[in-house]
Amino acid sequence: MLNSSKLNQYWTDIYFHLHYPHGEKITHQVVRILQLIEKKDRVVVNDVANYLDISHNTASEHVKRMIHKNYIEKKRDQEDERRVILRLTDIGKKVLHENTSLDEEKLNHIFSQMDEVEIELITKAFKLLSERAKSCM
Hints:
CATH superfamily of the largest domain: Winged helix-like DNA-binding domain superfamily/Winged helix DNA-binding domain
Structural class: mainly alpha
Strand order of the largest sheet: 1-2
CATH topology of the largest domain: Arc Repressor Mutant, subunit A
Shape: elongated
Number of domains: 2
CATH architecture of the largest domain: Orthogonal Bundle
Number of helices: 7
Strand content: 5-15%
Number of strands: 2
Order of helices and strands: HHHHEEHHH
């Protein structure tokens, strides 16, 4: 039977061996903010503060630095002009992908050594885990 500890060990092994080489140095908090903006709709500075459990002022400073680096941009909410929504720029999407995703070239190499049944099994397992993970938030 698979337990959480084993799954974490497998996941860290997978990530360690298959992640992209990190080019741009960014903090873990920046990665988490980029992920929040990518995964949630209509993120505002207050959402960043709540998500990271930091003050609004600290979250605002993080956002300003990320705007300066061109990772994110602010846009007025079309449904409520008073709200300012944070969005990823193309550079922000690239930085996020390189810091959280698995290297697709390495994955394709591994998949080329598998048969259809193995690939389908892995795909279904990751899809199921992804769907269940989304219900935890």
